[in-house]
Amino acid sequence: KQEVTQIPAALSVPEGENLVLNCSFTDSAIYNLQWFRQDPGKGLTSLLLIQSSQREQTSGRLNASLDKSSGRSTLYIAASQPGDSATYLCAVPDYTGANSKLTFGKGITLSVRP
Amino acid sequence: GAVVSQHPSRVICKSGTSVKIECRSLDFQATTMFWYRQFPKQSLMLMATSNEGSKATYEQGVEKDKFLINHASLTLSTLTVTSAHPEDSSFYICSANLIAGGPRGQETQYFGPGTRLLVL
Hints:
The structure holds 2 protein chains of 2 kinds. Helices cover 0% and strands 56% of the residues of chain A. Chain A is mainly beta. In chain A, strands 2, 4, 5, 9, 10 and 11 form a 6-stranded mixed sheet that branches. A 5-stranded antiparallel sheet of chain A has the order 1-3-8-7-6, with no helix packed on it. Chain B is mostly beta strands. Chain B is built from no helices and 11 strands. In chain B, the strands form 2 sheets. In chain B, strands 2, 4, 5, 6, 9, 10 and 11 form a 7-stranded mixed sheet that branches. In chain B, strands 1-3-8-7 form a 4-stranded antiparallel sheet, with no helix packed on it. The model of chain B has no long low-confidence stretch (mean pLDDT 89). Classes of the chains: A mainly beta, B mainly beta. Chain A binds chain B through residues 9, 31-32, 36, 41-46, 49, 51-52, 89, 93, 95, 97-102, 104-107, and chain B through 4, 6, 32, 34, 41-46, 49, 51, 57, 91, 93, 95, 97, 104-105, 107-114, 116.
């Protein structure tokens, strides 16, 4: 059974700092990995999706990397801003059965201090 | 991009009543929708997979008679929490699959804004 872990659970940094959020998964046979952002009391916004054949994806100040063999992914946020404060979740799909479903980590709650 | 809506966004009800939550894909058709539950400071846990025109597939430990799912059209799935109790209070989020085509790994799930349920 796939397990997704995100450590630490919370992170607080000063504005402007570059930071890395980690995600690990136990079953390396994944098709892709996705990073989401969740604001308090809100749904999820997809940030980046990395296919298993890719090593990284970039969108603006965000860069996500994937190392399937070691079961790890990182989300790099450059020049962090207070508006980046949110919970960041990673998820991998599970194709066991007729439909795919996502297995999520518990998320990392990021606070960027002005 | 693809948009998924949920209604209501927040509901408070008395113990023993039933609550219906709607999930709509606004600008695309979704043969598959997913229902998740999220408790405070916890991750999203998949409750069931809703397939248009067929019965939903429930995850282990989720009571299908308590959480009724109907996927009557390609743009609408509903979750009904029957005889709700305080322990059912949670954040319920739906998502819909936008299949880009091609091999596995091409699907993208778009999430609704969530519904906060509070059972008194």
